[in-house]
Queue: 3 jobs
Job 1
Amino acid sequence: MITVLNKCIGCGKCVPVCPFAAVQMIDKRAVINEACTLCGACVQVCPVDAIIIEREDPIHKDFSAYKGVWVFIELEHIHKKGKAAGTTIQPAAKKIRKVAYELLSEGRKLADTLNEELCAIVLTDKNTGYEKEIGAYGADKVYLVENSELEEYNTDVFSTVLVALINRHKPGIFLYPATIMGRDLAPRVAASIYVGLTADCTALSIKDGLLLQSRPAFGGNIMADILSPNSRPQMATVRPNVMKLSEPLGKAAVVIKEDIKIDKSIKRVKVIERKIVHDKLSAKIENSDVIVSGGRGMKDINKFKVLEQLASSLDGMVGASRGAVDMGFKEKSRQVGQSGTTVSPKLYVACGISGAVQHIVGMKSSDIIIAINKDPNAPIFNVAKYGIVGDVHEIVPKLIKAINKRVNSR
Amino acid sequence: MHIVVCVKQVPDSAEIKIDIETGTLIRAGVPSIINPYDHFALQKAIELKKAHKCKLTVISMGPPQAKSVVQLGLALGADDGILLSDRAFAGSDTWATSYIISKAIKKIGKIDIILCGMQAIDGDTAQVGPGIAQHLAMPQVTFCEDIKIDSKKIIVRKLIDDGYEIIEAKSPALFTMIMPKDFEPRYPAFLDIHNSLEKPYHQWSMCDIGAQEQYIGLKGSPTQVDRIYPPPKREKAEMISGGVSEAVEKIVDIFEKENFLKI
Amino acid sequence: MPSMDTISRELMLDSLRNYAKKNLFHEFLREKDANNEFPAEILKEMYDQSILGVHLLLIPKEYGGISGGTFDVYRVCEILARIDLGIATGVFATFLGTDPLSVGGTDEQKEKWMTRIAKENLLVAYAATEADAGSDLVNLRTRAEHVLKNGKLIGYKLTGNKQWISNGGVADVYSVLAMAPGGSSWFMVEKGTEGFSPNKHEDKHGIRLSNTAGLSFDNAYIPKENLIGGVEGQGLTQAQAVFGYTRVMVAAFGLGAGWEALEVAIKYSQQRIQGGGPLSDKQGYTHKLIVPNAVNLEAARAYIEEISERLDGGEKGLQTEGAIAKYAATESGNKTAEDAIQALGGYGYTKDFSVEKIKRDAKITCIYEGTNEVMEMTIFRGRWQEHLKTRGRYYIDMADSLQSLHLESPEVGADLAALAARALAVIMEECRAQRLTRHQHITFKLGKLISLAELAFIFAKRAAAVEYTETIKFDRNVWQAMSRVYAKNAALQIAAEGIALILGAAEKDIDLAEALNFNTIQALQKGLISDMDLIASKLKDTFKAK
């Protein structure tokens, strides 16, 4: 229910911001018509808090109309490689982020279990045939909003559009990437429409028709299963590299163009400068195929450095556990785990890492995990494919030698 | 200008332990700390207050002992402190929590800037800040490393995937903060802690802030915890035995077989 | 002065811990310890009002301090001791140095000196000890002679030597005890006073980060307004008035040093695998080196907290109680530090691990502020008076109250604590009847047994309390198990040692077993091992190795 209170001063600010032309000024007072989707854009701009959206009592809500699994498709700008550090980013073409495919792959399974459709949500200034790639990862439909105001991400614009789409099409489940963009956007949407949102899920499934969202809690020491039984859509964010990609199919998704009007005035913050930093240090660990990680067991910063040699002989990067980062062995950007980065390289070598859950959730989906630890009971051996019990300070230097010998003998 | 900084008391994650047999958390002896991201937000707020003569209110939600983080804020330089504490708040998820805090901020009155930590280390959700902004119909910028006030504009430096953005916002607005690598948390001196007892401090309940019962606590939270359980045990690794040299050769064999050796 | 609220106190302790975490790590302390170096810059920062300002704790609010109470001081001392006992001693010396002033100073003197100490972050030293005057200050040799001008007293000339003065070489201002014509008196002496100079820094076994030096006075002129209280002859009264709580501070040092060492050992024991499992799972290790120490330290904590609360509540003196706290906590702290070296084996014996230094440091707590033998004597004297005054009812009354506590809270070991108190009453009465206190050995031993009984009493009482203080890191059932173990041991030890004392000295043959309820004490030992098992396993959980 949306109501305009008597304190409306007729300033008219709410009229242009409505994406659906649902607000009119009649007798110097805002009047809301039936095109309203309860997106709340007008509430946000009203200077006197005269517009009120009242929510229905969730317990008595009928959810039968809410169907379909939605995935928010995050687009990223393509930068030219080799740009010097600190250069301003020029607007460039955009592509779909890999995490979107991961979410589609997972969303497909959920949609199949529910026997519902999988839909991708694309907000962009220009569609460049995204439906093909999206379809390849299982989506049935793409809800496409094309508008020049969507060239760049803006919280106000994107959240307003998503709320409008949700109110219009009523999805049952809505998944977002737990990226800088997704984590900015999803809670805004959830707060707006009073629905549950579970952050950083590591597994999703369907339980009695509901979305069962599993995530580590309390620093990853324990797992929690979360349900949002009394609100729709059931929303969740998932970190990149957590869900496995499915095999691409040769089908395209059906594009459904959504007509939504966007007024500039709802953008309340402005990006005045954007810089990218391209240098070796900022190379991202989640993109590396081989990661050699060290934990507290590396003892000190100098002993930790031997891992750099091992990583370089395998053409990989060095990661670290939270403990090692806390002790200053490695910078925070290389921290693997729940509170750092989630990775899934082809090879993960864990050296002197005992394997707290908080670390394990960040690397367990690596293809091959090799663990070296002196404690035979270290939990890291429960996720590793291969384990060696022994002193890392003895093994790692020998390993480097052996690799070099083998490579040279070829 | 009036700044509100939101802080949370969290268990020190470095000290969290788990009972392996029962899968429950061992709470005894685990110290509570201010969430480090909030600590950064608080210090930034104090810098702004000093540079621009703003009024600074520190607010937290939690059990009565969470007064500690509010008092920390006062001791470090905030002007007044508010603790939202009520049994009815217990079990609130991020939605209900942001609703409660937004109601309290509305009660405070006209606010120009709200600062929050990017996320809390006990939940890692990063949802409460944007939630508060939405409930207050304010714009937001998340993951900010720095914030400055330039006449009427607020300029923040937001982290993005491979760099940063400089963003301009007008008050009122909410910002969530993430500390840079070299952040050094400050702790108050004894005298500042002592003197903070004389600063205005309020504890507000559900009724005080006019929150509606149906939107708070366990009942008002759209997400529900279905089950808590220890992380699943996985199959044990294939242990490579033998002496060190032998084991090392076996690993190199695996590297070779899987094509990890440089050509 | 009452103590602060828990939250404010904990915030101060957090600030202190975080300061230490950033600045006082093991390598730094180890280097200073090896070089026998006083970390002047650290003390300066710790006194800096804008960084920490720890010294403000003992300065009243009206002079720019924060008016801390005994509980506050106990906690700060405990945490300081966990960081480094040498630095702790440097801070403590300032606390101690301001005591004669707070006890005996005139309002003008307090205003002048306290304000300066607070604002100028002055390091203070407490200078009483001399070569022939330790705990016994009767042989004081430093003289304060009148200086007259036109027949009117204008000041004093101090001549003599002081020994083992903490902060002696580095303090900005000294409280000096000297014999004036009217009797022993305290004087405020500023550094740089002509005729006064500190001697060289001692080369000590432990607390090597604490500056310790002798002081020499050769006709050093002190104006008469620096005579504390303005009246001569008040020195000993002023010195003794604060023993109750200064000894609580040293007790807290023993507690802090002991727990620091024990935590290192508990964590080590989980990582050291011997015979197929961690040492922390082996009774032969835990029940000898870990559990008894944890129990004794927590008993001492309970007692320190009880006395702190009583002092904060306005009770005066409490010299016997202060002595019991100091004696019990420092004996336990020292023993724990020693056992921690044993617990770490060869590693513990090297300087790579902190326990080696803690052991050397902790020893001083058994020596300064009155040696523990002086404590045994003080405890005996204080309680012997009570025993005589109450016609032997003192410990019987304690036993009766424990008996009724046992009915309400059967899980805290109050029944055994009652048996301990009752046995002590019997032993003391037997000593009186047979005039055995003519043996000094017996009186000192009684001091020890008294300490056991009183700790058992207070531990049981506090373990039964509805709410625990914020300092208790254990769940109720664990702390209560500790109280039971302590009471079991106290009852057994008092009965057994009491028998040995009396039968060893008495001329006639007597059988005390029945009077001491020896059979019941034996029977109630039941469950001791399972309690110790529980404690061992919970210590492991509470101080989990990373």
Job 2
Amino acid sequence: MLKRRPTIRDHSAEANLFARRAFVGFVFVTILVAVLLSNLYTIQVDDHQDYQTRSNDNRIKVIPIAPNRGLIYDRNGVLLAENKPVYNLEVIPEDVDDLDTSLSEMSKLIDISEQQRNDFIKDIKHNRRFKSQVLKARLNEQEVAKFSVNQHKFPGFSIEARLARYYPYADTLTHALGYVAKLNRKELTKLESQDQATNYRATHDIGKLGIEKYYEQLLHGQVGSQRVEVNNRGRVIRTLSMTPPEPGHDLVLTLDIGLQQIAQHALKDMRGAIVVMDAKDGGVLALYSNPSYDPNLFVHGISSKNYKALLNPDRPLINRTTQGRYAPASTVKPHMAILALEEGLVTEHTKMWDPGFFQIPNVEHKWRDWKRWGHGHVDVYKAIEESCDTYFYDVSYRLGITKISDFMAQFGFGDLTGIDIHEETTAILPSKEWKEGRFRESWWRGDTISVGIGQGYWTATPMQIANATNILVNKGLNHPPHLVQVAKKENEVTQINNDEKPPVVLKNPDHWRISLDAMHNTVKKVTGTAHRAFKGANYDPAGKTGTAQVVSIAQGERYDAKSLKERQRDNAIYIGFAPFDDPQIVVSVVVENTGGGSSVGAPIARQLMDYYFSANPVTLAGSAKQ
Amino acid sequence: MQLNDKRSIWDKLHLDLPLLIALLAMMGASLAIVYSASGQNSAMMVRHATRMAGAIIGMFILAQFSPATLKRLVIPMYCAGLLMLVGVLLFGVSSKGAQRWLDLGVTRFQPSELMKIAVPMMVAWYIGRNHLPPRALHLVVGFTIVMLPTLLIKEQPDLGTSILIASSGVFVLFLSGLSWRLIGFLTGLVALAAWPFWHYGMHAYQKQRVLTLFNPESDPLGSGYHIIQSKIAIGSGGIEGKGWLQGTQSQLEFLPERHTDFIFSVLSEEFGLFGVCLLLCMYLFIIGRGLYIAVNAQDAFGKLLAGALTLTFFVYVFVNIGMVSGLLPVVGVPLPLISYGGTSMVTLMAGFGIIMSIATDKRMLLK
């Protein structure tokens, strides 16, 4: 220890020393306060905007609100695709006092499977306790009612409704409407590349097929949003503002659901396709492919069992009207006749002798007519009415493939019809270039002969056949086929698909009349191939039958349906229109492996036309009564 | 004033009126800010107000002790504090990863709080016994008095409190007239010691806090979260602030520790730069008044003790505001007189009680 020194303390010097030090201390304090202040000034004034933004980013969240998908109606205003609420039983765990007891009480009321219960428990473990979790999805009406009565006993439980697509006509319209289903990763990536991802932030489903896919942009609408204030755990404190979503456009189709049902009914269990077009504007009145399936299965995710059932040899997933490739067969004879007349190979009066077969000079091979003993003397009318093959073998041989394919291309063969669904194939309109490209083989003149009767390499979809017929009955005017007439949004109506393609122009327009007259006779004359099917119709129809070989028959053999397997039998085809004077509708029917166009195809066309004209009666003079 | 024979009522009560008014004003502000920061929690408000009342009573009681009485208590207080610190390390109660409390059966006691008063008192008494400026030997002893409790507290670990205690002791030495040359030399020494201290003397979480300070965005959800959210709160307050109870960072709970260590951010967010300036002016006034009292104190003990307590008060202010605004690492020092929490409030007010005792002591002699 230090001993106190005897020196006298100089108190005033010490006080001065202390005062100086205290002053220095205060100066230091002031300097440090200035340092703090300058830093705070930087944060609060210079960088204020930046921190203000970050503060708002913290607290303001934008919750997207899905728009209501546009509805789809048929031409008469019948609802074909609607949005129906689906009810989910949801639970906010935080609001439930005793979850286990409540769950067991609830399962006494509503059937809840072990799986659902376990999934739910897993969900609540991985989420915030104030977040609503689905206990059971898609309750039926009875369950909703049961819950509503007992809701007061289950605090924290609620029923949440979401709109989901529903197709009341189920399998009748699948291949036209398509369907929506859950938006997947790939579609999301695509939407991102189109800058559409934000618009789909709240959207559950997207069009996957048919009209639902083709018109996705119109049907979807614009996403809305709600700006909410959240706390640090993401709980919504209050709503700051709201922009309501804009619903999608409603679509009115050219389809007539009644006619569509007739088509389905007429095909029964036969595989085939039916297209009915409005001859005035190309609007598709019926588009049906058999067999079909229920699109509602896909909306909520199809089970693998149900999906496997659709992968059967009848291939219901294929849209036969636009993806089925069939030899157009004799239905192209009217077009072929016009080309022959245009090229001057025949005239209206030229007659040729049909012995029942055609031979290329100096070639052994015989191309047989369907009538073994031949049609005798044949002119262009008789050739179409009775569907004489030999006449067209000869004509096409003389025309050559290039002229044929150039001319038929004008009728839309070998190209997409441009119908407003994406499921479409071009099928094949053969040409020299096509064969070289496809088989690395040059065109052989014998190849042309069967093309003359719509066979050989030539394939077409029922839609192409209908379209080509429509151009023919309109004497070259080309109204391409389409399914959607108008898009509506509130009071604003947009006409779509009313454009025309360039017409087919003939050197002599009278040649249209010759072919069309012949088609008229096909139905009118007793010898015509469609006469029997249309006997007694109270409108004036015209048409052309076709019977397409699926397998080639060896030389010297005869086609015998009984000896062939079902899948190798002929396809029945029919094209028709009515009334003859002022065509209103065009029908194209293809039925697989059922035999003749006159015995199977024409009667189906008759049913369709009967229905149409009973709903839209016409006088025999041809003008609509309305 | 000093020549005025008549003692005022405040002198009789041993209270310094300007200081008292400033302290009460701060406490009023504290009530308003804690009310907002606690999410308008009335139960917390009752507790906070009760503690304030207790702290004011404690201050008043301490103010009645004359500096002479305090001098007699210095050695027992310091020794008892030192013993209890050792006790804490041996059989203290842990909470939040640090061992800072002694369980006394009825209540928990934090001996480091006692040392916040005892250390400057002890050093002021020891240095004040001798001539100013102190001689080398006195300095060594003085340093030892400071460093013993500082190291014990750092071991708990409680970096914030050990800094406060070390600085309170160092301030006594500084005010006693430590030569500038020695100050320069010691500063250099501290800088040299910083490197080994960083590697061997600091806990991982303490190092993390320092690292985070220089780049808070490197770990926005981890240790950087506090600083980032605090700076967002301060910055978004701007010049005028968002208004009382309107701070989104605090009301929506993005700001952590908002009613304790980070209460300055709440104030900055809701009252802006204006509120900040007002608060700093109040602090400057309190410090100025404290130093004024120190300069006018009767003897060296009073001068050194009042001066050191005042400057230590500023260390609270500087460290707290520095840490919430990103200038200093987060070390867990509350904003004096404003933060919610009883212990620091009581200790600080006890300090002001002592300052008031020193302030009124000389006036008694003048009579």
Job 3
Amino acid sequence: MDMVNITIDGKQVRVPKTATVLEAAKAVGIKIPSLCYHPELRPEGACRVCVVEVAGARGLVASCVYPVSEGMEVRTTTQQVREARKMVVELLLANHPQDCLSCQRNLNCELQTIASDLGIRKIRFDGEKKQCSIDAENPSLVRDQNKCILCGRCIKVCSDVQGMNVYSFANRGFSTTVVPAFNQGLHQVACTYCGQCATVCPTGAIVEKDDTQAVWEALSDPNKHVVVQTAPAVRVALGETLGMAPGSVVTGKMVAALRKLGFDKVFDTDFTADLTILEEGSELIDRLQNGGKLPMITSCSPGWINFVELVYPDLLEHLSTAKSPQQMFGALVKTYYAEKAGIDPAQIVSVSIMPCTAKKAEAVREEMRSSGYQDVDYVLTTRELGRMIKEAGIEFANLPVEEYDAPLGISTGAGVIFGATGGVMEAALRTVAEILSGKELDSIDFNDVRGMDGVREAKILIGDLTVKVAIVNTLSCARKLLEKIRSGEADYHFVEVMACPGGCLGGGGQPIPTYSETRQQRAKAIYECDYTSTIRKSHQNPAVKELYDTWLGKPLGDKSHHLLHTHYKQQNRK
Amino acid sequence: MCDCCGGNHEKKFVQLEAILKKYQGMKGALIPVLQEAQDAYGYLSKEVIEHIGEHLDIPVSQIYGVVTFYSQFHLNPRGRNIIRVCQGTACHVRGGKAILEAVQKQLNIKAGQTTPDLRFTLETVACIGACGLAPVMMVNDDTHGRLTQELIPEILTKYS
């Protein structure tokens, strides 16, 4: 690679010719304050907070987009630079609602942080404020353009990572906004509700719809029996919202915190992840043996389901009919659990804690009422649970470690890896391989299907059958895969797709910020949870076995069909 | 076949199809296509924009961004007569604002809007280069100068 030598604040640096000044500075440990810049998205150079002095250049330059060149001399902390940065932020604040104290992103806002870092104590300008209406017509996300600083990150994550192109800059000058086509609400356009825009938004302009108030009300109602399920990826991320390092496994503390908040039963979505494997695994075996539609594609990720229904309705038959673990859980809580515990299902409030904003929309789908009630009443993201724990004044770090309640809290290592891209595939392979071959696997670690690449392929020998699989994460990669399936090029048997980068652990409801290192650390933690589980195969989950033996019958049986499977239909938003 | 108009776009979009064909495979075709489509239909409807997006393989959100960036493009039907009331410096000094108010009152619309019967679209301009006649407005290609509020109703009756 061609290298160049430059000097930053008197320090000699040798960097690739293609680097920007900001990247070069980072390489030698010099942090240039920035705002619109995001390390995983194309730089925009919009906010001008990252300006620096370059000898010979006309005026200050935006380091996030300014390329290095041989012999360049950069100064990052001169008086002129610091004053310019302050001015830029003051001007942004002059147009900003400045309702920080009551903003959902209070204390987790990049605009607030940069204002604090730059020591802004007075805003010299009294600017005009935008008067845009708030878009809250969908179940998942709330957009408040008045807080938007026009950094363009949401536009880029939606187009470059997810390939959906929901957002664009519209209008001009002060009237510029970031909006879906024709200034429609997200519920009117082809938005999958994946929430990646919310996780990269530096301010409170795009946030998850907050459902904590409804949950607080249920918790304080003595006539309600409130049960909660926690998704696999929440336990390795929740700690981040409460001051812990990424990758901290907080399963036991989270269970303790949920009990303190007043939930009557604390259950685990991992239980129905195991159940999903039995239903979906059986469906795969059935499709393989009886000439069913192949490849079969997983159906756990509601952002992904929305994507197929919106963009590839002709390929809906490829989706497994198995409901997602959240919805299987919801269906069982108000039937199986209600019966077993002798509780009127009308009194049960079923809450789920999810790393996901699309799950909020999934829960209110009209098909998701197979118990006779709405199966999952409220979906909270990891971020919302973090806020409830803070609101209750719980000292999370000092909590004792507690266990989930039985029976819907009993799970295996196969259930927990659902939280990482490749996890559903690996969990399914552990079970399907043993059922098909009739003997126990020597090794249950399918390392080929792990990792973070957008598309991964593997061939797995099961008995005398070579099963071709693919694992996909992000919707732009999913689009490539579906094009191959549509054209007949793809000869896979089984495909796992997760809408978000890294799978659920990088979901749209996860703590902010989420960078690629954060995802790696969460993934490492998820696999740790698997290794330390005593049971690591879904079909060996004793509570799932009991469920089938005493109540459900067999996988793909009548009762399963009614409660645990669903159908998909074209959505016409565009 | 697209699904943007219930399958009858052949009739509806004959002119648009011809425009798109002319620019097929050409880089940077979006703006000329939008201009010609607007010439053909008078404005750029949602249907027309969606159709263009599908054919040029450009996300509709981005086309919306382009259309709202340039003041030459219009998302709503335009009136048969376009009124441009000057708000430039000379007209401002000589009461251009009162003229605008009079037109707004007469037509019961605001600047940037079109009357429901599509007779008039009202716009403001920053200068039309006829400062000697200030305050001034144009209706279509006619220039009306030395205006007073009282003159407005009569001028407008000339345009149907």
